[in-house]
Amino acid sequence: MKDFLDYKDEIYTCSRCGLCQSVCPVYEITKKETTVSRGFFSLLNGIIKGHLKFNKKIRKNIDTCLTCNKCKNYCPSGIDAEKIIISAKIASYAYAPFWKKLVLSGLYSKNFLKLASLSKLYLIFPILNFSKIGKILYEFLKPNIKYKKQNPIKTSNLNVAFFSGCINNYFNSSSLDAMKMICEQNGINYTMPDFDCCTMPAYNIGDIDSFKKFAKKNLAKIPNNVDYIIFDCATCKKAFAIYIEVLDGEEKEQKKAQAVWDKCKHINEFLLEQNIDLPQLNSKAFYHTPCHLDCEDATLELMQKMNIEVAPSEKRCCGSAGLFLIENIKISNALAKKKAYDINITAANAIFTDCPLCRLGLIKGSILSNFDKKIFNLAEIIVKNMETNFKV
Question: Which of 79, 137, 272, 274 sits at a 20 to 30 Å CA gap from 326?
Fold first, then answer.
């Protein structure tokens, strides 16, 4: 990965045309120049020239970036704003809020996560459904699927490993259970290595040392005999692509990261490629594309094969990006409600997404906007149709 100062040419390349303003979801809410790429680059240009220095205020501004990369797609100069912002966060990590570092230390600890999951089971879950915040958490923690052992109806020689992620492991295993049941029914052998957090939250606040450390730990846990590593979370899968970059200069580790990446598939890609019986839903659905999803075409093709009509909509971020939803809660809530409005006007009778945190954002938007609809991923819907003719 390049250091912050190595991006000075790209930062200078910014023509300040303002196209990033037209697509930035945060700027749409704040209307502040310092919360959009053009404004970030002005601040960073001042640092490069020695007119400014990193401090808490500048750090707070760049922490409003969702890293959705919409600005890159619209930039006439093709500037990769996300990588520049991440490099600036790495350079200014000393100014990252202490509470963020504390929260992340919990994500790095399996014992802390296990303790948090127990609090859900024994203390929080029964009393959540009494306020809007409680309802949001209740719906997020309530599983769409409960695991039931499946008898195989087909045979397969495939061996896959699930990267289950923190939410599946400790808070809501619905998506993981759905993947397991699909594999069992189709005779696909699976394993669930004891992975650590993908640590994308560490990457997104600039804690590159922890990110690299956990990259090596996760790569070392992948069995050699697996054909694919399956993800239900677009962001977790993206982490494995970034592992290749952060291990630049460590030839053996980087080679391992590349070999692993070649086996990485999002569950939707995997389901599309396999000979799996798909339900015919005959429904109109709203699909929220996660910012980090790299297989949208495969996802839409899979939905087409399931006879799901996808309602056209603006691809707006749900505002539920890592710790952003805590640090910038007002912006996050505003984005969630805008997303809910987008869903409402389509009159869709089902909502799908493929990121656990996006699911949280959609739940939050729907409850804050006073309408109630369940949010599924496609694997969950397939499982719901295994034994009953489930209608969304």
Answer: 79
